[in-house]
């Protein structure tokens, strides 16, 4: 069943314009719905795989007997009764009117989910005029410009989200087959970087090829594994010699930093026989600062006994606790053990780093989180999170908008982070949360 969206609002706020946007004009007025009345417009719309029906109440012509107010009320009631979700359209340039208040009063009691679209807001996204519409008691005013198409898509996503949930979001995830995963293998000398890379390149399922324009010695190897393209980027402390890699003596921090900066995903390799050294912790710190996705590979797992393994896990826990989001993989490059799960972890870290998180889903997540545990008030300030959107990828950034958010403490941010991670299944990538306060 297609969900039905009703557009209601007083004349001239832009309902018909918005209707045309929602239906892309193509079938703005359709005649094939039974019982269609002349004064209500029905249209079919689709975003991605989501199909819906839109009702526009804008096209009616009030008669002399009924008068505009009565006719509008009747139209609105009919459309609302038929709808699954209502978009109440107001006009930021015209400002609030008595009619808006009348419609709002009716909608508050109608028992339907209502979104408040503040139209004609082109160039006014951050205008204080928008806040005035809170007065209607319909919720957060959503700025749109129907004429310019601004904010229309996110309004639609918001309206449809309850009916389709997250299922469509997965379709929009970064299609990993398209772009190569830029991968850097970092670690101090002797942890086994060249052994691992040579083991990879010798794998049957891995197809290495020379990229045009790169010299034979360049450490920049594109390859493909299980249909996933990778690009091994210039890895610090290695030299390519013909078809194999060999370690070079001098460890270079700058090279390491460049490799990390250049990568999407960093594999930080540790030597199980050595424990976690200061240098390992430093490299881990650089990776964290860079925001890159990271997987911890504990190499030479073959060379230590079970007691040493326990001690090692403890020292990782103690010294690399700030990389707790990174999956830990045990492997032996020499014996080619654990390479399959390592590939899987690298792919998952990459997918997490490029996860698309829609505004409605993020907004609902922060609202749910606040309902479960509200941010502590700080003196006279009560932090209020209004909505959230994605501000970037690799690392994923979640921007939360609201009031008095400067007072939200770190433990609350960690709580939010945990909930967002759990919902989107984010592993192997840092997640940044930014608060933006309107006051
Ligand atoms: P309705 O049918 O009463 O809901 O409103 P219409 O869709 O007919 O639009 C009323 C007027 O507002 C028209 O002149 C539109 O061109 C104009 N309008 C619609 N949307 C926008 C917008 O986003 N920005 C501006 N500046 N004007 C708009
Ligand atoms: P790199 O400097 O990080 O490139 O380290 P190398 O790949 O040159 O490895 C340093 C030493 O560790 C070599 O003697 C390797 O044979 C050894 N090595 C590498 N991987 C393993 C492993 O998984 N197990 C064991 N026991 N030794 C390894």
TrEMBL record:
What keywords is this UniProt entry annotated with? GTP-binding, Nucleotide-binding, Repeat, Ribosome biogenesis
Q: What GO biological process terms are annotated to this protein in UniProt?
A: ribosome biogenesis
Task: Enumerate the Pfam families for this protein.
Answer: KH_dom-like, MMR_HSR1
Q: Which GO terms describe its molecular function?
A: GTP binding; ribosome binding
The organism's superkingdom is given as Bacteria
Asked if the Swiss-Prot or TrEMBL record annotates the protein with the keyword Chloroplast, the reply is no
Which sites bind GTP 2?
A: 187-194, 234-238, 299-302
What InterPro entries does the record point to? G_ENGA, GTP-bd, GTPase_Der, KH_dom-like, KH_dom-like_a/b, P-loop_NTPase, Small_GTP-bd
Q: Locate the EngA-type G domain: which residues?
A: 3-167, 181-354
Looking up Gene3D superfamilies in the UniProt record yields:
3.30.300.20, P-loop containing nucleotide triphosphate hydrolases
- Which residues does GTP 1 bind? 9-16, 56-60, 119-122
Is-annotated flag, keyword Nucleotide-binding? yes
Tell me which family the UniProt entry assigns to this protein.
Answer: Belongs to the TRAFAC class TrmE-Era-EngA-EngB-Septin-like GTPase superfamily. EngA (Der) GTPase family.
Any idea what job this protein has? GTPase that plays an essential role in the late steps of ribosome biogenesis.
Provide the assembly information.
Answer: Associates with the 50S ribosomal subunit.
This chain's protein is named GTPase Der
Native organism? Inhella crocodyli
Q: Which gene encodes it?
A: der
